[in-house]
Amino acid sequence: MKETPLSNCERRFLLRAIEEKKRLDGRQTYDYRNIKISFGTDYGCCIVELGKTRVLGQVSCELVSPKLNRATEGILFFNLELSQMAAPAFEPGRQSDLLVKLNRLLERCLRNSKCIDTESLCVVAGEKVWQIRVDLHLLNHDGNIIDAASIAAIVALCHFRRPDVSVQGDEVTLYTLEERDPVPLSIHHMPICVSFAFFQQGTYLLVDPNELEERVMDGLLVIAMNKHREICTVQSSGGIMLLQDQVLRCSKIAGVKVAEITELIQKALENDKRARKEGGKFGFAESIANQRITAFKMEKAPVDTSDVEEKAEEIIAEADPPPETVSKPVLWTPGTAQIGEGIESSWGDLEEEEEEDEGGSDEVTILDSVKMETEDHNVGNHISDDAPIVLSDSEEDEIIILEPGENPKETRIQANSKQDKVSSKNVIRKKKKKPAD
Amino acid sequence: METEFAPSAGPEADPSSRGSGCSLRHFACEQNLLSRPDGSASFLQGDTSVLVGVYGPAEVKVSKEIFNKATLEVILKPKIGLPGVAEKSRERLIRNTCEAVVLGTLHPRTSITIILQIVSDAGSLLACCLNAACLALVDAGVPMRALFCGVTCALDPDGSLVLDPTAKQEKEARAILTFALDSTEQKLLMSTTKGLYSVAEFQQCLAAAQHASHHIFRFYRDSLQRRYSKS
């Protein structure tokens, strides 16, 4: 579906409001929207809501052979998908630019910053390493996808537990989840992206732009930083020209924001860990707010199925008996089988060219209701006869003589075929070869 | 683990009587939780969770338009990896069910797109997808001739029936049957089965699913009543 265009008056209104340091949702220039993090029942699954932007993250692992030039390192794979649910304009195949940009930024932020210790993912050097796959799905697009995605990715990675492995000499034992508790990944630091939107050629700046603000912005600056104030990635797009002190100011703001967000993430991870350890409730069911009028819960409901047997017997007794099965398959030669016998074909005429391709003979093809493909023939061979027919590709096949009074609709011109005995209409035709009678 | 779900539900609780220990897991739903789609719903059955967004009736590509009714598109996205053949076949089943109930002739030459995202899979996934899709269509205001629900039945190797099986029960079952039933007369809209079972067992599972659907439709009614009633 096409993107709904932004009207000129909306654009002007937004820009004028920004000039007066006002935002539509009442935030201040440097304010982030509410961040809400919820976890699922399996490890590595989380949903992050940044205002109304929602991202689902899931981490999974698999044992694979390592890359040839990195025999002792595990493999990390990131995949961000812009689901069609997130915005009507995100059709498969239509969003490649944005998708590539976001994926690349995410990779630079997480992979190149070496936040995950890949050496610890090695099981047997050169043979088996863990491949960690992070799948992010954008569920709702209300601006600032990259921030939400980077938070979801790092939270999912921190939450994830991989199966425990022990290596004794040559023997590698992979323990299941029941045998040994799974082990968390080794994460050095948590890089988080912070986005700055610039308006009016860099005069005005907003942190965490929402969707409307993104549409009217001139350029975007993304700084990925961790709480130790180390910059992992900087990207400036949109062709705005920024001054050095602007970039430095942004990095200072980013430092403050990242510290706040990291604290929020730690708290959420702690809460979830505590809930799991104490046997309390956890998972998405718990994160549905009870007070919301649009949410509803029902406890486990027993279903009385004591009378199903009687009901079933009644239905079967009253029902018609099942229809007769089709005739048994007849095996002609290895690889050739026949089911049923031919009946009138109800297909229309084929084109001329097919006829020429297949030897140029006109024969009426009688198709079964069950059409079978046989191995040792060209396309279009049908054996629907009781007697064996030897078919050939000879070019010298004769022409068929059809009896008058044939329903022209039933005439099907095709190269190889049969004859039909049980058909109600009389059709005489000359077969390709030894006619079987 | 979801604490409301007692692992003793099903045949182990009552080994003497066949099927009378069936129960549905804890249900939860939330509607209108996404701001961009016209309608959205999240449905949770125990630990299985599916999020659905509906766009429609909206503009349709000329190549896909049908002159006298709405084009229904269903997209199912798994959580890990790219969608494969299993997702395509589930999409088709969901689409066939929806086409049977959605009044497409009221909106010709439009498209109604249903996008399902699997959030977690712990058994009875297709049934959860159907339930979530129905609530999302209701939230979007798409006209339908009836509501529909999905119920999954599993048959143990010893022949007892389990409704709304968990992933573990599905793995140990000898047959898994999923039915889509409509709300007016609990008639069968769609059925898909996997495994070995007899005709009598099929009818028994269908009858059990019809019993279970009463609970599900009551859940729909209660949740919509909570949302739309004045008090």
Radius of gyration of chain B: 18 Å
Shape of chain A: extended
Biggest sheet record of chain B: 5 strands, mixed
The main β sheet of chain A shows up as: 6 strands, mixed
The helix/strand series of chain B, from N terminus to C terminus, equals EEEEEHEHEEHEEH
Instruction: Decide which structural class fits the backbone of chain B.
Output: alpha+beta
Shape of chain B: globular
Most extensive interface, chain pair and sizes: A-B, 56 and 70 residues
Continuous helix count of chain B: 4
Helix content of chain A: 10-25%
Low-confidence stretches of chain A: 353-386, 408-437
Q: Can you give the helix content of chain B as a percent range?
A: 25-40%
Number of strands of chain A: 20
Structure description:
The complex is a heterodimer of chains A (437) and B (231). In chain A, helix 2 (96-110) packs across helix 3. Chain A is built from eight helices and 20 strands. Chain A is an alpha+beta fold. In chain A, a hairpin with a 4-residue loop joins strand 11 (192-199) and strand 12 (204-207). Helices cover 24% and strands 23% of the residues of chain A. The longest helix of chain A is centred in the middle third of the chain and has 34 residues, at 244-277. Chain A has helices at residues 8-19, 96-110, 145-159, 211-216, 244-277, 284-287, 308-318, 352-357, and strands at 35-39, 45-50, 53-64, 75-82, 122-124, 128-140, 161-162, 165-168, 171-174, 183-184, 192-199, 204-207, 219-225, 231-237, 295-298, 301-302, 330-333, 336-338, 363-364, 413-414. By secondary structure, chain B is an alpha+beta fold. In chain B, the strands form two sheets. Chain B has a five-stranded mixed sheet with strand order 2-3-4-6-5. Chain B has a four-stranded antiparallel sheet with strand order 8-7-9-10, sandwiched between helices. In chain B, helix 1 (85-101) packs across helix 2. Chain B is globular. Chain B starts with 22 loop residues before the first strand and ends with a helix. The relative contact order of chain B is 0.16. Strand 16 (301-302) of chain A pairs antiparallel with strand 1 (23-24) of chain B.
